[in-house]
Amino acid sequence: MDPADAVIDRVRVERLDEGVAGPWEAGDSRFAVVVEAGGVNGVFAPVDELPAALVATRLGQSALGHPVTDHTGLLRRLLAELGPHAAGLGRWAVGALDCAVWDLHGRLADVPVAALLSDRPTPRVPVYASWLSLDLAANSAAESVKATAGEGFAFTKWALRGGAETAEMVLLAERAATWAGHRVAVDALGTWGHLRTMEVAPLLTPQTVRWVEDPLPRTDQTAYRQLRRHTRGLRVAFGERLSHAEDVRALLEHCRPEAFTFDAVWCGGITEARTWLNAAQEANVPVHLHGRAFLPAVHLAAAFPDVASAVEYQVVWEPRRQRALRGTLRPDGGHVALPDRPGLGMGVRR
User: Of 25, 66, 173, 270, whose CB count within 10 A is highest?
Assistant: First the structure.
């Protein structure tokens, strides 16, 4: 079937097979969004229960009859369907459905999604490693950091939650950089707040910390403009908590992060991600795509290497997500190879 003639015939949600994926653990994503046109399926997985339910009960019906290749039109239709609820969970559900449609488009065209986005996608994408569940104060932390950094990633990222004393947080950041042998990124996971960030900021040197990601619980322009005025020199990163392109443009223009770290599914999918990448390029802000949507992020980074730099690879969580998928996408020497199969390149195991 010519992709230009294809329309979406069916949208469904499937529960991933525990017998194939192995026993589920708390936090595992257990569903797949499947889009069909002319007997060909496009799939995005794994997806959490709440966005999957929103696709099954509301968004899937809105997508029926829409041309497969009209990604922008479908995005507008889905966001209009959600209305004022087109943020947070709504964007997540739209993004999952959007990625499944891109997978379908690539399968119909018999090319990888990256080749639909660019005439010359790069065959290998740089990645950086994050291990946010590792306690840097644990006795085994030094060995874990050294082993991870030794795998050749562009750099590494570690969690520093705001519950510790300021001096301890700074010491742990310095130790992580020493163990890794390079500047590290630090993820505050929204736990620091203004006061703690102002305390820590002058003590973190650029030679130790590449950036502090999400120091504040909310990502809004007013909060980050105030933070920038009071912590000059602190390099911050943010993006995964954003929902609207208008907020993205304002934040990139006025707050100038060291890195823009949005998620290719949470933002609304590959279609919306292109808009956000354009905004980052116009603002001259480097993009390091969030690792939750690793497979779409790899295709986007391959298609737009001048904008999207190293993609986050979550060294503990990503292998678990890939258990239910056919094939694996694992780093080798700090890079991952762009899948050469049609669509996103990794179907669901059955």
Answer: 270
Model pTM score = 0.96
Give the residue-averaged pLDDT of 278-305. 97
Q: Are 259 and 288 in contact (CB under 8 A)?
A: yes
List the structure tokens of 124. 């290998």
Mean pLDDT, rounded, for 184-204: 94
84-128 per-position pLDDT tens digit = 888 899 999 999 999 999 999 999 999 999 999 999 999 999 999
Q: Which candidate, 66, 86, 31, places its Cα nearest to that of 269? A: 86
Q: Which DSSP string do the residues of 120-162 spell out, in sequence order?
A: S--SEEEEEEEETT--TTSTTHHHHHHHHHTT--S-EEEE--T
Q: Determine the Cα–Cα distance for residues 180 and 316; give it in Å rounded to an integer.
A: 17
Position 21 confidence tier, pLDDT thresholds 50, 70, 90: low
What phi and psi values does residue 66 have, to the nearest 5 degrees?
-85, 140
How far apart, in whole angstroms, are the C-alpha atoms of residue 199 and residue 167?
A: 9
CB under 8 Å to 220, separation ≥6 — which residues? Answer: 247, 251
Distance, CA of 193 to chain centre: 23
Q: How many CA atoms, within 13 angstroms, populate the side-chain half-sphere of residue 346?
A: 23
- Predicted confidence (pLDDT) per residue in 243-290, tens digit: 888 889 999 999 999 999 999 999 999 999 999 999 999 999 999 999
The single-letter code of the amino acid at 288 is: H
Which pLDDT belongs to residue 23?
77
| CA 175 – CA 113 distance, rounded (Å) | 40
Residue 9: name the closest of 44, 39, 34, 37 by CA: 37
Please name the residue that has the structure tokens 């797949």: 32
What is the residue-wise DSSP string for 237-300? Answer: EE-TT---HHHHHHHHHHH--SEE---TTTTS-HHHHHHHHHHHHHHT--B---STTHHHHHHH
- Please measure the distance between the N-terminal and C-terminal CA atoms of the chain and give it in whole angstroms: 25
Round to whole Å and give the CA distance between 328 and 45: 13
Bridge partner list, 13: 33
Rounded to 10 degrees, the C-alpha dihedral 158/231/170/316 comes to -10
